[in-house]
Design goal:
Number of domains: 3
Structural class: alpha+beta
Family: Belongs to the oxygen-dependent FAD-linked oxidoreductase family.
Pfam families: BBE, FAD_binding_4
Keywords: Oxidoreductase, Signal
Oligomer: single chain
Organism: Thermothielavioides terrestris (strain ATCC 38088 / NRRL 8126) (Thielavia terrestris)
Number of helices: 20
Strand order of the largest sheet: 19-16-18-17-21-22-20
Shape: globular
Protein name: FAD-binding PCMH-type domain-containing protein
Radius of gyration: 25 Å
Bound molecules: flavin-adenine dinucleotide, 2-acetamido-2-deoxy-beta-D-glucopyranose
Number of strands: 24
Length: 659
C-alpha cells in the first residue's frame, strides 16, 4: 500500500479539498500487486509517439487495454467516446440536468482525481487563484509574489502563464483579486476546480474522456484573452494549452488549393512568437495586433482579423490543416482532404466547440514593404480642435472606408473620451497604425493626401507621422501599441458594418450619426477599416459571413467605477446591449464572436451569419454529449449558468435549459 501525494496539490482556505492518504495499486504482467505511483503507472500507460516533431504522445486503445489489464481502478472513465464502455458512462453522466458540481455525490473522489493525475504524468493542478498569494489567510500568502503580480497585473503574460487566470476578471466574479488581499476573502468564484497543464496530446485525450465520462464541466484555456468569459468556469476541469509552444517552417507545401510556404504552429504559440519566428524564417505571417493573443486557440478558430486581412483575408483563411482532439477523445487531422466538415467548422466556427486544437499548419507570405501612418489627435478646450471639427474630420475619414479597404488598408485607431460623457473634455484619437501591406510609401501618401487636404481646409489640427519598412516585423514592433489587460470594470461589444451602407448616402450618414451618438454617450470606439473578404481560391470557411463584406469594424464598450450596487451595475450592462448596440444593429447586424457582447440577443446570426445552421448541425453531430460549452458558442443556448444576474458570468453551476 502506498501513500500517494499530489505534488502540485496546493491547499488554500475556502476551497480546501485536501487529498487524503490514498491507497492505489496496479497488477503487473506477472501478477504482482504493486503500489500505483507516478513511476509505476507511467510505463503501464506507455503512450505512443506518433509525431516526434510535435512531441505528440497519444492515448490509444492499446494503452487503455493495458491499464484495464493492470486493474487500475476507474480506467473506464478514460475510455473513448466511441467505445462501448463510454456509451454507458456518457448515459450516466447526462442523467442529471446539470454538469456534475463539486460536492455532488457524482463528483469524482480524491482517489479518482489522483488516478487522473497519475495518468497525465502529474500534470493535474488543483486551482489556486492567481491572487491567492495576496490573501493572508489563503495558506499560500507570499508578499513578494503578490507584489510581482500587482506590478505586472495589466500585462498579458502574467495571466497567460498562470493555469487559470483570465484577462476579463469580470467573468470569474472578480473573486480573489490580488488588489483586495487585505479587505476580502479568496474564493474560487468562476475559476475552474482543476487544470491540466498540457504538454502532449494524450493529456488532452485523457481530460476530455474524463470530463465526458464523469459529467464534470470542461473548459479550455490558452492565454485567457477571451472577452466573454469563455476560458473559465466554476466547477470545471480546464485544459491549459499555453505550453504547447513550437513552430516548424515548411518552405513549400502543396494542397488542393495552395502551393507555397507554410508554418506549423503548436496551440500555445502567441502572436508575438509567430511574428518573431516568421521574421526569422524570412516570411510574413497572419496574426492579430496584440503580441499575447494565442494564434491557433481562440483567435484563428474564431476568425481572426489581422493587419494582413485587407490583402489575405482572415486568419481562418490561412489554415491548411488542423490537428484536433475531438469530443470523443480521438485525435484527428482536418484538412481539405480529411474530415472536411470539421476543417470548415474549425476555421471561424469558434473555440471550445468542436474539440481542442493541438496545432495548425498555416500559409505564410514572402516579406513585403509596409507603409503607413500614426497620429495622436486631441480635441477639447485645451487644444486647437473643437468637437465639431473633430466629427467633421471623422466623417470625412469614414466616408472613404470602402475605397481604402479596396486598396488593402488596415486602419486601426481608437477614440477615447477625455472625461465623463457631456463634460466637454473632448476626445483623444490615436491611429495605431493605418497601413497597407505591400504598398510603397509614395503610394500610401498619395492615397491619404486627399483626406489630409480636406482636414486642412476644415482647420483640423493634426500631425501625421509616416513610416515605411521593408518587412512586417519592424512595422509591428515599432508602430503598434502594447495592450493592457485585466481591467475588471470594463465590458465591450462589437459591430461589423457592411459596404452596402455606403451606397446610400442617407443610410451612411445615419450610421455615422448613430456611432457618434454612442461615443458622445461615453463609449470608447476601437475601429478597424479593412475588408477581410475570402481570398480567391481559398476553401470556404465557417468564419462569420458578416465579416466578408464589412469595411468597418467597431468595438464599443463602457467602464464603470468600483462600488456600484448590483442594480447600477446591471444598468450599465443593459445600456451596452440594449441601448448602444440597439442603436447600431440596424446598420451592423453582425458582431465579432471573439470581441463580442456575451449578451448579444441573436448571437447565432450576429457571430456566425448564414453559417450558423450548418455549424449547429455539425456541433450536434461531433459533440452530441455537449462536452464543450462556452457562452455564445455554437449550440450553447441549451445550457445556462445558474444564479446569475442579468449578465452571464461563469460563477455558477452549468445546467440544461428546460425545453
Ligand atoms: C488585448 C487584446 C488584443 C486582441 N487583438 C485581436 C486582434 O488583433 N485580432 C483578433 O482577431 N482578435 C483579437 N483579440 C481577441 C482574441 O482573438 C480573442 O480574445 C481570442 O479568443 C484569444 O484566444 P486565446 O486562445 O489567446 O484566448 P483564450 O481566452 O485562452 O481562449 C479563447 C477561446 O478559445 C478557446 N480555446 C483556446 N485554446 C483552444 C484550443 N487549443 N482549441 C480549441 N479551443 C481553444 C477557449 O476555450 C475560449 O473559448 C484581442 C484580444 C485582446 C484581449
Ligand atoms: C513522482 O512524484 C514525485 C513526488 O511525489 C516527484 O518528485 C517525481 O519527480 C515524480 N516522478 C515522475 C517521473 O513524474
Ligand atoms: C503495458 O504495460 C507494460 C508495463 O507494465 C509496458 O511494458 C508496456 O509497454 C505497456 N504497453 C502499452 C501498449 O502501453
Ligand atoms: C460494442 O457493442 C457491440 C454490440 O453491443 C458489439 O458488437 C461490439 O463488439 C462492442 N465493441 C467493443 C469494442 O466491445
Ligand atoms: C514584471 O514583468 C517583467 C517582464 O515584463 C519582469 O522583468 C519583471 O521582473 C516583473 N516584475 C515583477 C515585480 O515581477
Ligand atoms: C496589505 O497590507 C500590508 C501591510 O499593510 C501591505 O504591505 C500590503 O501591500 C497590502 N497588500 C495589498 C494587496 O494591498
Ligand atoms: C495650436 O496651434 C498652434 C499653431 O499651430 C501651436 O503652436 C500650438 O502648439 C497648438 N496647440 C496645441 C495644444 O496643440
Ligand atoms: C436609403 O436609406 C434610407 C434610410 O434607411 C431609406 O429610407 C431609403 O429608402 C434608401 N434609399 C434607397 C434608394 O435605397
Amino acid at each position: 500500500m502506498a501513500v500517494l501525494s499530489l505534488p502540485r496539490a496546493l491547499l488554500f482556505a475556502g476551497a480546501a479539498l485536501p487529498f487524503q492518504s490514498l491507497a492505489q495499486t496496479i497488477t503487473t504482467g506477472d501478477g504482482k500487486v504493486i503500489p500505483a505511483t507516478n513511476v509505476t503507472v507511467a510505463p503501464a500507460a506507455q503512450a505512443v509517439a506518433a509525431d516526434a516533431e510535435a512531441n505528440a504522445l497519444q492515448l490509444t486503445d492499446a494503452v487503455l487495454a493495458n491499464l484495464t489489464a493492470h486493474q487500475l481502478s476507474d480506467i473506464d472513465l478514460f475510455q473513448f467516446g466511441d467505445s462501448n464502455a463510454t456509451a454507458r458512462m456518457a448515459k450516466r453522466a447526462s442523467v442529471g440536468d446539470c454538469k456534475v458540481w463539486p460536492g455532488d455525490a457524482a463528483w469524482p473522489s480524491p482517489l479518482t482525481w489522483e488516478v487522473f493525475n497519475l495518468l497525465t504524468g502529474g500534470a493535474l493542478i488543483k486551482t489556486v487563484p492567481i491572487g491567492a498569494v495576496c490573501y493572508p489567510n489563503s495558506g499560500v500568502y507570499n508578499a513578494q509574489k503578490c507584489a510581482g503580480i500587482l506590478a505586472n497585473w495589466t500585462q498579458s503574460a502574467t495571466h497567460a502563464n498562470d493555469p487559470t487566470s483570465v484577462m476579463s476578471p469580470l467573468y470569474q466574479g472578480e473573486t480573489c483579486m490580488p488588489q483586495n488581499g487585505n479587505t476580502s476573502t479568496c474564493t474560487l468564484g468562476g475559476f475552474p476546480s482543476y487544470a491540466v497543464k498540457i504538454e502532449s496530446v494524450y493529456q488532452i485525450q485523457l481530460a476530455i474522456n474524463f470530463a465526458r465520462s464523469t459529467g464534470v464541466r470542461l473548459v479550455v484555456k490558452n492565454t485567457g484573452h477571451d472577452f466573454l468569459g469563455k476560458s473559465c468556469g466554476a466547477g470545471a476541469l480546464s485544459i491549459w494549452t499555453h505550453n504547447l509552444k513550437w513552430t516548424r517552417f515548411i518552405p513549400s507545401i502543396r494542397t488542393p488549393s495552395y502551393s507555397g510556404p507554410a508554418m506549423e504552429i503548436g496551440a500555445g504559440i502567441e502572436v508575438g512568437d509567430l511574428y518573431a519566428a516568421a521574421n526569422q524564417y524570412g516570411v510574413t505571417a497572419v496574426g492579430g495586433e496584440c503580441k499575447g493573443v494565442g494564434v491557433s486557440g481562440g483567435y484563428t478558430t474564431g476568425g481572426g482579423h489581422s493587419p494582413m486581412s485587407g490583402k489575405h483575408g482572415l486568419a481562418a483563411d490561412q489554415v491548411l490543416s488542423v490537428n484536433v482532439v475531438l469530443p470523443n477523445g480521438r485525435f484527428v487531422t482536418a484538412s481539405e482532404t480529411e474530415n472536411t466538415d470539421l476543417f470548415w467548422a474549425l476555421r471561424g466556427g469558434g473555440g471550445a466547440t468542436f474539440g481542442v486544437v493541438t496545432s495548425m499548419t498555416v500559409k505564410v507570405y514572402p516579406k513585403m514593404t509596409f507603409s503607413g501612418v500614426t497620429w495622436t489627435i486631441t480635441t477639447g478646450p485645451d487644444t486647437n480642435n473643437t468637437d465639431d471639427v473633430f466629427w467633421q474630420a471623422m466623417y470625412a475619414y469614414w466616408r472613404k472606408f470602402p475605397d481604402y479597404a479596396d486598396q488593402g488598408s488596415y486602419g486601426y485607431s481608437d477614440i477615447f473620451p477625455r472625461g465623463p460623457a457631456g463634460s466637454g473634455a473632448g476626445y483623444t484619437w490615436t491611429m495605431n497604425p493605418w497601413l497597407v501591406p505591400g504598398m510603397a510609401l509614395a503610394d500610401f501618401q498619395a492615397m491619404v493626401q486627399p483626406l489630409l487636404d480636406e482636414w486642412t481646409a476644415l482647420g483640423f489640427d493634426f500631425t501625421p507621422v509616416f513610416f515605411e519598412h521593408d518587412n512586417f516585423y519592424d512595422a509591428w514592433t515599432r508602430h503598434f501599441p502594447t495592450e493592457s489587460v485585466a481591467n475588471s470594470n470594463l465590458r465591450t461589444a462589437s459591430r461589423l458594418f457592411p459596404r452596402a451602407n455606403w451606397a446610400n448616402e442617407t443610410l451612411r450618414e445615419a450610421m455615422f450619426d448613430a456611432v457618434r451618438s454612442v461615443v458622445e454617450d461615453g463609449s470608447a470606439l476601437i475601429q478597424y477599416n479593412m475588408n477581410p473578404a475570402q481570398p480567391q481560391g481559398s476553401p470556404d470557411a465557417a468564419a462569420n459571413t458578416h465579416w466578408r463584406d464589412a469595411v468597418w469594424y467597431g468595438i464599443m464598450g463602457a467602464s464603470w467605477a468600483d462600488g456600484l450596487t448590483q442594480d447600477q451595475f446591471e444598468d450599465v450592462q443593459k445600456m451596452i446591449t440594449l441601448d448602444w448596440m440597439a442603436r447600431l444593429r440596424p446598420y451592423g447586424p453582425g458582431g465579432y464572436l471573439n470581441e463580442g457582447d456575451v449578451m448579444e440577443p441573436d448571437f447565432g446570426d450576429a457571430f456566425y451569419g448564414t453559417n450558423y445552421p450548418r455549424l449547429l448541425q455539425l456541433k450536434r453531430q461531433i459533440d452530441p454529449y455537449d462536452v464543450f460549452w462556452a457562452p455564445t458558442a455554437v449550440g450553447s443556448d441549451r445550457w445556462r449558468v445558474q444564479n446569475q444576474g442579468w449578465l452571464t458570468l461563469q460563477t455558477g453551476k452549468l445546467c440544461k435549459v428546460s425545453e
